[in-house]
Amino acid sequence: MNRSGFLDCRLTEGEIMKTKTGLNRREFLAGASALLLASELPGQESKSPPTAPDSAKLAIEGGEKAVKKSAIKPVRWGEPEHAQFTEMLKQDSLLYWKAPQTTLLIKRFQEHYPFKHVMTCSSGTAALHIAVAAAGIAPGDEVITSPLTDIGTVIGILFQQAVPVFADLEPHTYHLSARTAEPLITPKTKAIIAVHLGGNPSELDGLKALADKHKIVLIEDCAQAWGALYQGKPIGTIGHIACFSLQTSKHITCGDGGIVASNDERFGPLLQRFGDKGGDRSIPRFLAERLGTNYRMSEPQASFAAAQMNRLEDIAAKRSHLGILLTAELAGLPGVSTPNVPDKNRCTYWHYMLRLWPDKLRCTREQFVKAAVAEGAPLSNGYIPVLLHQLPMFQQHAFFSGRWPVKEMGLTTMDYSKVKLAEAEAILKTCCITPIHEGMDEEYIRSLAKGIRKVAEHYAT
Fold first, then answer.
1. CA distance to 162, 238, 274, 427, per residue, from 212 (Å)
2. Which residues make Cβ contacts (< 8 Å) with residue 426, sequence separation at least 6?
3. pLDDT averaged per 10 residues, the chain (length 461)
4. What is the Cβ-side half-sphere exposure of residue 268, based on CA atoms within 13 angstroms?
5. Model confidence, pTM
């Protein structure tokens, strides 16, 4: 009791500790010291927060790679090509005209592409030049096309002394469209060349309607789009003239070669003439009617390409399937957008191009690609070094020994140094490319997506 007669409820510090823990102060301190000492002994479990597992840590920082197996290289040729080549060696002549291999190649091509007029030629670039010449493109005429393409798309335009006019592109298809092309049409515009970049069909209905409205020619550059379909129709069959490449990197090949084709009676009969020195070989002792080049394909090339043509549908279907799978696996990924392919179209993925969005990532494109490659995902920066109009010869208007005759003669006022294409420039600065081919399987594509997803999620803002 205290002086007031009440029970003294005050407890000592040791008694309070004893009440809360069941230990007195001395016992508690002794136990705590022992625990602290035990935590510092080797082999004991750390009480610090757990670290991220190696599977979540970037490979570039020492983590586990996401893509553990490389894709198997496809077998691109073999016995069928050998057998067809052997048949060709039995011939007395290797000239293309009415010859067995060229005839077979055209027949097999027409099984995929129902064209009445078909001319085999030496390259996809040659096919495009033939198309431009057959379309009647003359000095000073303008041809609207994409700036994000191989230089082969515009070489024929320049050699016809015409003027390439570059349109801006749509952000998720990487194509020009009727929306971007129509403001560029002038009385000098004679054609549009739609480039089916990476095997993805361009917006052909809008472009064809635009071409018909202005009475100009629509040429399809199908070099990278073998087997692609636009709303269920074979690519190339919507425009007036179609151009294909058989260069070694394309879906099917003969090393280097091309095909140009048309169902339009205004242009179709001219394809052979412009690919074979300007004359009609169906006429005995034919004379050169027009200034044409020698872009003929030889029988050895045709025999190889004819055998390859039987592989086309399997290759196209496999690439399309894998591309669709990769897009699905990358859906919703922060800072990354995948190519837009409408449901009714078939893209055959000569390559797979995605875009990075810098405002949603804590890294540069170069850092992203480097990290992805470390994961085993074969990404590469960009596509071509610069857009076509940014090439030095365009900036300096120096196409023919440092000169541009049509500009000197006042047939054009084009100044490529003043061309600004905001979206096309943004696409080239933010795009990444990874290959897709028929040697890959679903397991590899899923692991590829896993590698890209791992990097994107790591760098997401």
1. 21, 12, 24, 29
2. 171
3. 37 38 40 38 38 74 94 95 97 97 98 98 98 98 98 98 98 97 98 98 98 98 98 98 98 98 98 96 88 97 98 98 98 96 96 97 97 97 97 98 97 98 98 97 97 97 92
4. 13
5. 0.87
Determine how many CB atoms are found less than 10 A away from the CB of residue 308: 25
Amino acid at position 201, single letter:
P
Spatial separation of the C-alpha atoms in residues 228 and 202, rounded to whole Å? 10
Do 157 and 163 form a contact (C-beta atoms < 8 A)?
A: yes
Integer Cα distance of 347 and 200 in angstroms: 4
Say how far apart CA 164 and CA 147 lie, in whole Å: 9
CA nearest neighbour of 150 among 193, 185, 204, 105 = 193
Task: Identify the H or E element spanning 337.
Answer: strand 336-337
Burial class for 20, CB neighbours closer than 10 Å (0-12, 13-18, 19+): exposed
260 beta partners: 119, 243
Full DSSP string of 194-219: EE-GGGPPP-HHHHHHHHHHHT-EEE
